[in-house]
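The pair is set out directly below:
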Amino acid sequence: MKPPTSPGSLLRGLITGACLAVSTVVAHAQSDGPPPAAGPRSPPVQMFTLPQGPAAVVPNFWNVERRLERPDAAQLPTTIRFLTTSDFPPFNYLASDGALLGFNVDLARAICAELAVTCTLQPVAFENLLDQLDQGEGDAILAGLASSPAMRQRVDFTERYLGTPARFAARKGLPPTAPTPESVADKKVAVVSGTAHEAYLRAFFNEAAIRTFPNAAAARDALRIGEVDLLFGDGIGLALWLNGTSSESCCGFVGGPFTENRYFGDGLAVAVKPGGDLLRQAIDYALQRIWEKGVFADLYLRWFPVGFY
């Protein structure tokens, strides 16, 4: 399956097939000038560690000190019509009985429950999402759209509900040393050629023995059989691979997430029509309340048993 061509299809690129690594140098290639001067340690995303232990870590994208105003129910629509897709598990997919399931589906329903409105979800082809929104066939898109600068010229976005971090993975049994430029300097690191992840490695981990591969499957196989010491790629795709059968339980994450948006994008958000401020603000309010109530954490852990943060 070919990687996405739409500038807003970052997530589609992350999940396609066996979860392709980002196939374009998204944030880095679209920005002018040299790579950012910041080192490989991002400003940390706020984390919430559950009682189950350090493995049960859920990212928090909402400023708990900023209290959003509850929307006026009288000004909200009685039904929010979400447009989504049906072919990208575990985000959106059809079960054997035809039911629409996935993280985004449950998140949309949680938003509507918080706002006390009816919710409908209409699956359409990914490439038709924006046209369907323009034509009034839906009120919002919740389908893994990346809030890139190009996409923001066509739609308005809520605050992000998921990031798209990069992660290192290694074979199990190795010392769990957090990757730093110094500790990786003598390691062979696999990465998909021509991606934002390769650009990041060459900018900040350039003393490592960087081994490029034509696609994510080849890079993961190299790690699985021990041809390389580490693999650097998108955290979502890697998490799904680690939790799947094709990894043969060979490997796990090492270190934490890398979240520099100039390389890895601004994350995933809900899209509404330009000027749809009331609906956008209402969804932002609902997302923050869903987080505060623990609903977001429940959904994240349900659909991503191997978390990517």
In short: Residues 166-264 form a domain with the D-Maltodextrin-Binding Protein; domain 2 fold (CATH 3.40.190.10).
